[in-house]
Design a protein that fits this description.
This protein has an eight-stranded mixed sheet with strand order 3-2-1-4-5-6-7-8. The protein has eleven helices and eight strands. With about 290 residues, it is α/β, with parallel strands linked by helices. The chain has two domains: about 180 residues, Rossmann fold, CATH 3.40.50.720; about 90 residues, N-(1-d-carboxylethyl)-l-norvaline Dehydrogenase, domain 2 (Orthogonal Bundle), CATH 1.10.1040.10. The protein binds nicotinamide-adenine-dinucleotide.
């Protein structure tokens, strides 16, 4: 970021990391995208190129983003993030994986760097406390796809410093988005509610009450949802939804959040949504 945040590091080049890197560079923000898996970086490069093409088309086919594209580099070593003033972590929704990474990031980054956690549900305080600098850790729950979503759910832990919130806020504004700052509790606001909808909508299919199309049409037509719970689930990724439901179950008990049999079968069969080309819907030739 040319103004006050320097280069932004994005850790994890899956669905969210790639989407975030694309949105950042489209706004002229210099970005380093890091993933331990070189194949994930390669896949992310394809997704980012496809996202850029789509953005140019929807902008009328002319020119690039208003700010001009920001530099984007792809790296596999966490150490390559050492110079970043703001790092946004987007690795797998698994507390142990995230904890190990935050411990590592904390040793590598300058103490003045801000660490934003992009998580669907994992309480941010627990991650902040595995580091020696919990004051610079803040939650940033971005929506997918990042480039076209207008809101970020920002999570302030009891330890988060105002300067860390301010630096994240500046980046969110630079991306053209609004934010709502909430307290830290597993699932925050959005996913504590949304995951229940998605899980129950999947169970409705197993009860032969309706088809995916019917469920989503009802949600669009009756309550004004833009996509409906099942198409939303495909965009998020069914594996990420099951991970998130497990995090919510651990925090709030099994009654509300145990993943439905339908979701578990989909994960077993590799029907993970848009990213694998098949979820509740089939996406011929557009796995992303
Ligand atoms: N998918 C969504 O719609 C969505 C929306 C908001 C937030 N999130 C959250 O964002 C995070 C990422 O989700 P996703 O859907 O992109 O997952 P994903 O499975 O698509 O990608 C995760 C990536 O993290 C990488 N990774 C794992 N451990 C790593 C490590 N130690 N260092 C570097 N890279 C590592 C993996 O190689 C993989 O490429 C999760 O916490 C998820 O809950 C997801």
């Amino acid at each position: 970021m040319a103004d006050d945040s320097g280069v932004v590091g994005v850790v994890g080049a899956g669905v969210m990391g790639a989407s975030l890197a694309q949105a950042l560079t489209a706004r002229g923000v210099a970005t380093v995208l890091q993933d331990a898996d070189p194949a994930a970086l390669q896949e992310a490069a394809h997704r980012i190129a496809a996202g850029d093409r789509l953005a140019r088309l929807t902008a009328g086919g002319s020119g690039g983003p208003a700010d001009g594209p920001g530099r984007l580099s792809y790296v596999t070593a966490t150490e390559e993030l050492a110079h970043c003033a703001l790092v946004i972590e987007n690795v797998t929704e698994d507390a142990r994986v995230k904890e190990a990474l935050h411990d590592r990031l904390d040793r590598i980054l300058d103490p003045g760097a801000v660490v934003a956690v992009n998580t669907s549900a994992i309480a941010v305080s627990g991650l902040a406390l595995v580091t020696g600098h919990p004051e610079r850790v803040v939650g940033a729950h971005f929506m997918n796809p990042v480039a076209t979503s207008s809101m970020v759910e920002v999570i302030r832990t009891p330890y988060t410093a105002q300067w860390a919130l301010d630096r994240l806020g500046a980046l969110v504004r630079r991306l053209g988005k609004d934010s709502v700052v909430v307290a830290d509790a597993t699932g925050f606001v959005i996913n504590r509610c949304l995951m229940m909808f998605i899980n129950e909508a999947a169970a409705v299919l197993d009860d032969d009450v309706a088809s995916p199309q019917q469920v989503d049409r009802l949600f669009r037509g009756c309550v004004g949802h833009r996509t409906g719970p099942l198409r939303t689930a495909d965009i998020i990724g069914i594996d990420t939804i099951v991970h998130t439901l497990r995090v919510l179950t651990d925090a709030y008990g099994p009654e509300r959040f145990t993943p439905s049999a339908r979701l578990l079968r989909m994960v077993r069969d590799g029907h993970l949504g848009r990213k694998t080309g098949r979820g509740f819907y089939i996406y011929a030739g557009e796995a992303s």
